[in-house]
């Protein structure tokens, strides 16, 4: 079943100006994990904004769950390269933020605060942040902040998780650790994921389908299915099929660079 | 270890020591050069005068304190309301800004005669002058705090379907809080300036009036006693707000002021 659908979507930030993305058509199945890679400035973040309803397409249509998007969505969780945690809230309070806004949690929050807090604590424990719930974000390391940020994106059980280079600012070890964490979360309780990344290994390791975008104005050049068996342990990244997938993608990116 | 502790001790008490030092220099200059008291009284005679007129000074100080606080309170309310409006709605910003900047450039003492015509001499013009002079920093800071909100933070909330009011409550106002508290420190000292100015020109109450009356009778010791009382009230209120600021916006000065506390 198709969950997110782009139909000939183009977007120019300024009226009559250059297109940031051009004629994008793609469809994401329910609970599919897709990754979008492409050169810097090709419109990957723009794609995210379109799905979340923060901007409207200049032409074309975006559908979520069969409905055309008009305005910000509620069934979405987002995490960015910067964790964007609110510095005046503790980690736990940050993770609880969506529950204060999204219905039906919002109206139940007063009655069920304890239950919701337990839910947030469980999620934090799940990503290895037990004991850090009452610390402030600036007391956490970059990797911890990003974990908390992902918890915040997931706490309201969104059907769609959007990640815009969430691991970009982290060191290689932490990044791989978080890949595994994300994969586990996703397998335990599936949701649809759109991951934007610069890292081809990350895309191949995590995604079912990888889309390669062209230079600005961004178009989809290649759609590639990654048929590596799940669950994928980290060791899979050292195997031949994995390297082959990465290699193919790298060649596509390389040819974009030259053109 | 010893050296380190002494350094710490010095840093902690530097302000007191400087005051004592300056008082000593002041006293020595007055005594040494035999400066006449009606020109520049020594600290000792200022102190004597202060002790001597303790009761009238306290009465006038209380009046000044009261008018300042009332004016300051109005300034905070008006400053926050206007600041939120200016910081949230670009149209209000566009409309108000030139007007506000122009208004802020006018020396507030120029308003006092107008206020006297409207309200007569006494407490009301003093309160209003304190208000006029001190609401601007509050407004500007609250507006700045709201307007410089990172778009990413806003996006996080908007992508959850938050309304404009939600964003203001959950992100805008908390983020503007450090700016707000910082402005309170500036505003309270300005409010003292406003009320004292107004009292010197148009009142028969308050420290400003007391100083005016004392200077016309050449009682310089009392004038200086009045100055010092204003200074003390200013410092106490400033410290009070500095303390509140530190308490409520710990997240904004993470780690920076740790050594200075
Ligand atoms: N708010 C905006 N206003 C005007 N132009 C914008 C805006 N945001 C992005 N653009 C333009 O749209 C194009 C795509 O930007 P986008 O941020 O989507 O790229 P990206 O693929 O996410 O890049 P990166 O990988 O560096 O994050 C760029 O040419 C950029 O200049
Ligand atoms: Mg981007």
UniProtKB/TrEMBL annotation, chain A:
Keywords: ATP-binding, Nucleotide-binding, Transport. It holds the Pfam family ABC_tran. The keyword Transport applies. Residues 4-240 form the ABC transporter domain. SUPFAM superfamilies: P-loop containing nucleoside triphosphate hydrolases (SSF52540). The keyword ATP-binding applies. One of its GO terms (molecular function) is ATP hydrolysis activity. CDD domains: ABC_NrtD_SsuB_transporters. It comes from the Bacteria. SMART domains: AAA. Belongs to the ABC transporter superfamily. This is ABC transporter ATP-binding protein. It comes from Marinomonas hwangdonensis.
UniProtKB/TrEMBL annotation, chain B:
Residues 61-241 form the ABC transmembrane type-1 domain. Pfam families: BPD_transp_1 (PF00528). GO terms for biological process: transmembrane transport. The chain crosses the membrane at residues 64-89, 96-121, 127-149, 177-198, 218-241. Keywords: Cell membrane, Membrane, Transmembrane, Transmembrane helix, Transport. It is found in: Cell membrane. Belongs to the binding-protein-dependent transport system permease family. This is ABC transporter permease. It comes from Marinomonas hwangdonensis.
């Amino acid at each position: 079943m198709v969950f997110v659908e782009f139909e000939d979507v183009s977007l120019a930030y300024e009226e009559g100006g250059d297109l940031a993305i051009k004629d994008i058509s793609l469809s994401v199945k329910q609970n599919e994990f897709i990754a979008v890679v492409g050169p810097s400035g090709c419109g990957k973040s723009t794609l995210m904004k379109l799905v979340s309803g923060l901007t409207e397409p200049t032409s074309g249509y975006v559908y979520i769950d069969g409905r055309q998007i008009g305005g910000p969505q509620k069934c979405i969780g987002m995490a960015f390269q910067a964790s964007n945690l609110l510095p005046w809230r503790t980690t736990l309070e940050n993770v609880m933020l969506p529950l204060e806004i999204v219905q039906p949690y919002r109206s139940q929050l007063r009655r069920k605060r304890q239950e919701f807090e337990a839910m947030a604590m469980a999620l934090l424990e799940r990503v290895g942040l037990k004991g850090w719930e009452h610390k402030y974000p600036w007391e956490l390391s970059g990797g911890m902040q990003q974990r908390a940020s992902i918890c915040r994106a997931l706490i309201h059980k969104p059907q769609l998780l959007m990640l815009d280079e969430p691991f970009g600012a982290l060191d290689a070890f932490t990044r791989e650790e978080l890949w595994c964490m994300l994969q586990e979360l996703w397998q335990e309780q599936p949701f649809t994921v759109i991951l934007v990344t610069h890292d081809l290994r990350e895309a191949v390791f995590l995604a079912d389908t990888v889309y390669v975008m062209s230079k600005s104005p961004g178009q989809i050049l290649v759609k590639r299915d990654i048929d590596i068996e799940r669950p994928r342990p980290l060791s899979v990244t050292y195997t031949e099929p994995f390297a082959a997938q990465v290699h193919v993608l790298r060649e596509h990116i390389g040819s974009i660079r030259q053109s | 270890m010893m050296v380190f502790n002494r350094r710490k001790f010095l840093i902690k008490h530097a302000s007191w020591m400087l005051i004592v030092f300056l008082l000593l220099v002041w006293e020595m200059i007055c005594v040494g050069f035999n400066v006449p008291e009606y020109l520049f009284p020594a600290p000792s005679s200022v102190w004597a005068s202060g002790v001597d007129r303790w009761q009238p000074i306290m009465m006038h100080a209380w009046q000044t304190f009261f008018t300042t606080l009332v004016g300051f309170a109005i300034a905070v309310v008006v400053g926050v309301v206007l600041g939120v409006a200016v910081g949230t709605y670009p149209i209000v910003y566009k409309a108000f800004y030139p007007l506000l900047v122009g208004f802020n450039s006018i020396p507030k003492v120029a308003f006092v005669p107008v206020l006297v015509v409207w309200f007569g001499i006494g407490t009301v013009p003093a309160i209003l002058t304190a208000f006029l002079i001190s609401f601007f920093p509050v407004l500007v800071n609250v507006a700045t705090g709201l307007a410089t909100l990172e778009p990413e933070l806003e996006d996080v909330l908007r992508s959850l379907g938050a309304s404009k009011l939600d964003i203001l409550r959950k992100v805008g106002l908390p983020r503007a809080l450090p700016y707000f508290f910082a402005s309170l420190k500036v505003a309270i000292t300005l409010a003292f300036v406003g009320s004292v100015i107004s009292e010197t020109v148009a009142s028969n109450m308050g420290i400003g009036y007391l100083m005016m009356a004392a200077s016309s009778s050449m009682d310089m010791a009392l004038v200086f006693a009045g100055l010092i009382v204003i200074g003390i009230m200013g410092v106490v209120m400033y410290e009070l707000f500095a303390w509140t600021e530190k308490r409520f916006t710990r997240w904004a000065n993470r780690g920076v002021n740790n050594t200075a506390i």
